[in-house]
Write a structure and sequence with these properties.
Strand content of chain B: 5-15%
Largest sheet of chain A: 4 strands, parallel
Oligomer: heterodimer
Order of helices and strands of chain A: HHHHHHHHHHHEHHEHEHHEHEHHHHEHEH
Largest interface: A-B, 37 and 21 residues
Radius of gyration of chain B: 13 Å
Number of strands of chain B: 2
Strand order of the largest sheet of chain A: 2-1-3-4
Number of helices of chain A: 23
Distance between the termini of chain A: 51 Å
């Protein structure tokens, strides 16, 4: 662990006094020429960057009217100031959502409003110069686009949209972030965030089949590229690679085995995550969505199910319909073909939690909860699921269903304090393309509010397990929990809890 | 561009050219992290390199732990043990010492 100053953890959240410029810096590593060009961005900061950036802002506000509205309507009431985990954890006033957004807003005002053009000082309008660009790069990579501040904004301003727009403008002038853009390049070339080639992907899962059989005595299959099955499962690639994710993936396989529903993974679309959203690029986000559409069409599936990945579910639930026609919306030839192919009796796309929850409701899954009796479980709502999606087509279903699934598999469940969960959930501290080692100080500090809430649950209810539904959250917690003197192994997938308690039949159930 | 024993490394300390790797580089990287490489470290590093040779990719954590269980005994085939060898993570720190690229993604 590196030397990051972490104060003794309290069980409640305190709004810190401001420490000006405490997180000033150069931001995360920048993407190199090759990485930038792979995504169609200029390889390095271009000479006429200012002019191109201003044109890009014009283009962005005309294309996304929401962004223009959000830039125009803030009245600086301050309701958001103490709602951001990065401000609470770092005390840097530029991490107050209103101040971070104002880096963009002041530039917008300077070039796009009458008063800003002629009386900039009167209205706080500022030039886009090198110093401002440096602040953009640094502070727009201290926003995880979690949208907690938006919940408390009386005008409903969506800060994430502004952070996304800022990153899109920066990419358009050749200033991109290494971590996110390198990952997007790998998805484009290989099909997943890891850059895991097909032979490694296949052999890793074959190994896993063997392991499950050794452990359970049941031959549970993990089909890959199997045609004409019912379900295409699209999971975050961390589920194949990392811990604790892998035990969640084993949980999905056990649920499919018990359900009798035929399923497959795709080696072409072996990634649910879509970092295109984090960098605000509609085009890059669309390319990711189209890979999944192509896999669904080629494999002839009638359902598409998404694994435990927070922002993937937001992209799938909220954007796939218009991006790729998966779920209705887009009207091109392939979108129409896919819509004909998909089974309308089921939600398209569907979340793995919805799938498991339905089976539980139908009495098709049987659990031995005592296998999880050593655990007192709490649940971390992931931001993109909590504030950017729904489940089960019922109000607040995205909060209800995961908890019901956990309770079906565990006897001991307690929630963390109400102001830190559900719609008010705090980010893990690593979302939005910030899960990189070069931002470790920010990640540790940004986790503070979640750690405080967890501490309270530990002290009041002896919580020793925190379940999550997002690959980023799981990796982030595994890394930062030790800084706060928690056991890094206390974070688990929801489907790990399911997988541990589920009672398996020797043979897969036949359908129905 | 930074160097270690004459080999170019990126800003995160990973070799630019995998073919530049040799054992002295691994030892030097470990020394920078205050780690003295033991037989157990070398078992992990060698396995990472063998796997990479075949798949052009680093092994998943579960593949690694299973292989280490075979080589060093069942009590050592788990990620807690691997983290005791490589405190910054077997995937990231282990790959760096082994001269492999850094695993990316939500890991």
């Amino acid at each position: 662990m590196s030397d990051i100053k972490v104060e003794k953890l309290k069980t409640y959240i305190e709004t810190p006094l401001i420490e000006i410029d405490s997180m000033k810096g150069v931001g995360p590593f920048k993407a190199n020429k090759e990485t930038q060009e792979e995504l169609g961005f200029p390889g390095e900061k271009i000479d006429n960057w200012k002019e191109v950036a201003i044109n890009k802002i014009a283009d962005t506000v005309s294309k996304y009217r929401s962004v223009q509205v959000f830039l125009d309507i803030c009245v600086k009431c301050g309701a958001c100031t103490d709602k951001c985990h990065y401000y609470l954890g770092t005390s840097d006033p530029k991490n107050m959502p209103v101040a971070r957004q104002d880096l963009f807003r002041s530039v917008y005002r300077r070039y796009f409003t009458f008063s800003g053009k002629y009386f900039p000082k009167l209205v706080g309008a500022k030039d886009l110069d090198d110093e401002m660009l440096d602040d953009w790069y640094n502070y727009f990579h201290q926003c995880s686009q979690c949208r907690r501040c938006s919940v408390f904004c009386p005008y409903g301003i969506d800060t994430a949209e502004i952070s996304m727009a800022a990153r899109e403008v920066m990419n358009s002038i050749g200033v991109g972030q290494k971590y996110s853009n390198q990952i997007l390049g790998k998805v484009k070339k290989i099909g997943n965030n890891l850059g895991m080639p097909e032979p490694a992907f296949k052999d890793t899962l074959l190994d896993l089949e063997e392991e499950i059989e050794q452990e359970t005595g049941v031959a549970i299959r993990i089909p890959i590229d199997k045609k004409d099955v019912e379900v295409l499962l699209v999971a975050p690639s961390a589920d194949f690679f990392a811990e604790p994710h892998i035990d969640g993936f084993i949980g999905y396989a056990k649920v499919f085995h018990q359900s009798g529903v035929s399923w497959t993974l795709s080696s072409y679309a072996s990634e649910a995550a879509n970092f295109g959203m984090f960098i605000g690029s509609y085009e890059v986000m669309r390319q990711g969505a189209l890979r999944i559409r192509k896999a669904a069409i080629d494999l002839g599936v009638s359902r598409v199910i998404v694994g435990e990945c927070g922002h993937a579910w937001r992209v799938a639930y909220s954007f796939w319909n218009t991006l790729s026609g998966l779920g209705g919306g887009a009207g091109d030839e392939y979108a129409l073909q896919l819509q004909k192919q998909l089974d309308k009796r089921y939600p398209q796309p569907q979340h793995i939690i919805e799938f498991t929850y339905d089976l539980i409701q139908q009495g098709k899954l049987v659990f031995d909860k005592s296998r999880n009796d050593h655990r007192v479980v709490t649940f971390h709502d992931s931001c993109n699921i909590a504030r950017g999606s729904n489940m089960g087509d019922i109000e607040n279903g995205q909060f209800i269903l995961p908890r019901e699934v956990i309770k079906a598999a565990c006897s001991n469940f307690v929630d963390m304090p109400i102001e830190t969960i559900k719609i008010s959930t705090f980010c893990c501290g690593g979302g939005g393309g910030l899960l990189t080692d070069d931002l470790i100080e920010l990640r540790v500090k940004g986790a503070l509010p979640r750690m405080q809430a967890l501490k309270q649950a530990e002290e009041s209810d002896a919580v020793n397990t925190m379940a999550a539904l997002c690959a980023i959250c799981k990796s982030q917690f595994s890394k930062v929990l030790p800084y706060y003197e928690f056991d890094p192994y206390m974070v688990v997938s929801v489907h790990q809890l399911v997988g541990e308690a589920i009672i398996l039949d020797k043979e897969p159930k036949s359908k129905n | 561009m930074a160097e270690i024993l004459g080999a170019e490394v990126d800003e995160e300390g990973f070799l630019i050219n995998i073919s530049d790797w040799n054992e002295d580089i691994a030892i030097a990287m470990a020394n920078e992290d205050d780690i003295e490489l033991s037989t157990e470290h070398w078992e992990v590093i060698n396995f990472l390199r063998e796997y990479f040779d075949e798949y052009k990719f680093a092994p998943a954590v579960r593949v690694l732990t299973k292989s280490i269980a075979k080589r060093l005994g069942n009590d050592k085939g788990n990620s807690r043990y691997l983290y005791s060898l490589f405190p910054y993570g077997p995937a990231k720190q282990g790959c760096r010492f082994a001269g492999l690229p850094k695993p990316t993604g939500c890991v």
